[in-house]
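This section describes the prediction task in plain terms. A model, or a person checking by hand, is given the sequence of a single protein chain and must write out its three-dimensional structure as a string of tokens. No templates, partner chains or ligands are provided. The sample shown here is typical of the held-out split.
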Amino acid sequence: MNPMIRKILDRLRPAAQLAVAAHQNPEGDALGSTLALALWLQSAGKDARAYNLDPVPSFLRFLPGADTMTRRVEDLGEPALIVVVDCGDLQRTGPAFAQFAQGREIINLDHHDTNDNFGALNLVRPDASSTCEIVYELIVSAQCTVHSAQNPLLSGSSLSTGHRPLSTDIATNLYTGILMDTGSFRFPNTTPNALRIASELVRAGADPARVAREVFDTQPQGKLKLLARVLSTLEFDAPGRVAEMVLTQAMFAETGTSAEDAEGFINHTASVEGVKVAVLFREQGPDKWKVSFRGRVQGDGSPGINVARIAEELGGGGHRLAAGTTLLGSLERVRLQVQEKLAAALLASE
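The expected answer:
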């Protein structure tokens, strides 16, 4: 067993009350790992409560346990131990939870390259496809299921080899996170281990057809109208290596949509032949912009531009091929900042 997993399990066993949280503006991996972990801990008889600053996006409300998540730290009680998942920086949970976490022991489970190891215990694996993959391995290592009469997480009994099937609800959450973070098993993080785990989750009851239908095939009209407006802003640099789009608050208002409806928009430009980096500038408020980056594996299989490094230089973080940051200033000023960083990275890659 991974020594860090053993340390984490040893710390989880005596904890009676816990809080589980992920980064704000959650997507499938953040929510899947939060909910799966909370359900698992609850199955062990623990008072485990799931938190996120932002509401669950409509297309992910089918996830088991999504209706139990709270957005108020006041609802979390007084846990001595908290688990933060899929979050490279504690501040990304939002100011309320970051303050709530002060003075409490933190377990940090993540797969972001730029994680700053903010926990007392840190299980950070950039080689993992997703945080859901890490949570799966933690659960399997503990031999804990809702069907187990002798629950080692609860009882503190010794761990044994092999594992029992996971519950359908836990499997559905974990499968959804892996599916979304691997881009439906299209991204380079689609490893043999990710595919093996996905297979085990289907065996445990996750329904791939249903998950795909809920996530990808149930779109409101407003989302398509929003996409049309965003695509109308598409610009390429002269060599066609960088693609940029802009999403404003006015576009949301015109189409009756919100930030959750923009999930995946950047992938449209990242798929264009010749593009090495795609960028989406999303207005969050007056002179405040969320900047998302997508890199692209090159035709020869090389990893391409490390957008996590660019995002980190701009105060953000993420993965080598998917990262982001938040910048203050006018759109023109923010674009210039980003373009200067991209130009330097592209020059260095030549």
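For orientation: Residues 144-150, 155-164 have pLDDT under 50 and may be disordered.
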